[in-house]
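Morning. Coffee machine broken again, so started the prediction first thing and wrote up yesterday's gels while waiting. Chain of 99 residues, entered below exactly as on the submission form.
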Amino acid sequence: MAIMPALFGVSGVVLGRCIAQSVRREGEERVTSRTSIALTALFGMAMVAISAYMQLTPFHALGVGAAAGFIGLGPLEFIAEQFSERLRGAIDGFFNPRK
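Came back before lunch.
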C-alpha cells in the first residue's frame, strides 16, 4: 500500500471536517466533539481503504479526502434520521399494536 496517498487522503478528511464545522448554517445543530472525532476517524479509515484500492496519487487522495470530510456528514445524518424513524415506528408497532 502506498503511504503518501493514504496520508494525503487522511489529512484531506481532517481538513474537510474542520472546514465543514466552520461553515455550519445558522439554526443547524452543532455536532458534538465526540461525534466529530468518530466521524473523522471513520472517514479517515475509509480514505485509507479507498486510496489503497483505487491506487490514487497523493493529490487525488487529498481532493477525495477533503470532499469526503466536507460533504460526508450530510448523507450520514440523513441515513441515521431515516433509520431512527423506522426503528421508532417498529418499536411503537410492537408495543402499541393496532386492534
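The radius of gyration is 18 Å. Going to sketch it on the whiteboard this afternoon.
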